[in-house]
Amino acid sequence: MTTPDPDRWCPRPAPAVLFRHDRARGNHVLLMPERVVVLTGSARHVVELCDGTRTVARITEELRERFPQAPVDTEVGPFVERMRKEGWIR
Q1: What are the boundaries of each domain within the chain?
Q2: CATH code for 18-86?
Q3: Within 10 Å of residue 78's Cβ, how many Cβ atoms?
Q4: Among residues 54, 46, 48, which one has the least CA distance to residue 21?
């Protein structure tokens, strides 16, 4: 499996994955059959931008604008790739 081009790939949730706020946990989560992934820190901001309309490069750019002091350039790409490998996004 090759890594998608961040300038062309527009990640979106996999069909069986739902992005929700879980009041009981006080965090956003990814809900999947038989699995819940609790999103901590800035992960929810990345996931909410993975809507199929933005490239990974655009997601990184938007988060860099929102959070200029955060290490966005070094963290967004690897996190998106991990989500792809886990099957959470396509």
Answers
A1: 18-86
A2: 1.10.10.1150
A3: 9
A4: 48
